[in-house]
Amino acid sequence: MTRISDQISINDQEIQYEAVRSSGPGGQHVNKVSTAVVLKYPVSPQHYPDWFIRRLKKAAGRQMSKDGKIIIKAQNYRSQDRNKKTAFDRLVTLFTNAAKRPKPRKKSKVPKKAIESRLKNKKIRSQKKQLRKSPDRDNE
Description:
Blueprint: E1 2-3, E2 9-10, E3 16-20, H1 27-32, E4 36-42, H2 50-60, E5 69-74, H3 80-99, H4 112-132
Antiparallel strand pairs: 1-2, 3-4, 4-5
Helix pairs in contact: 2-3
């Protein structure tokens, strides 16, 4: 069991690792050795709260299948062990990010000084434009 928070943990026995061939360049080595690792972890609603599963789906995106499995492929290294560790670390990061509750936004209030300066500038601009006008014929 890898503990993420007080409510959420990852059951290590449920993780399935599958060794597959890596894609991309690498010549003969890549063609004959299965160093890439595909990690599959089922996320069942019985083990996790609804809010967590919703956030996990959003965070995982395409990595989560329709049947509720998280699928992570790691192929950065030439070693299968390092790729396995990388895939597990990515799973932990995904769970950690989904477990964090976002801080609620606090409405901020416009400072009095800002309101006063805006009105003062408005008045100055208005006076400038009044001075640009030609004088009325009635006052002559």
